[in-house]
Give the backbone structure.
Amino acid sequence: MSSILSITIAHNWLAATLNAMHLHEHLVQALLPADDPRLQLPEVQREELLEQEYLDLGRFVKTLDVKGDNRLESIRKSVKGLSILNALDVHFKGR
């Protein structure tokens, strides 16, 4: 994968570079592109996410807390390491 990425970067092929990066992400995480990212959390099953629709990760964790789910501690440890990007202002600077 790194060779493909190096070639696409060397040729300045932005779309191919982004596609290679996304493919690498899915291979490393063992998820299909259409899969819910919450499947990366420990002991979370696909069927469980299909049964109940959660809007975001925070609501998912709160719902598990209310239910008294025994997986909550390991999921909280996993979520704690996630980073969040808040873009407040974006603009392009010309030369």
The chain has a mean pLDDT of 82. The helical segments are 2-10, 14-29, 46-51, 57-67, 72-80.
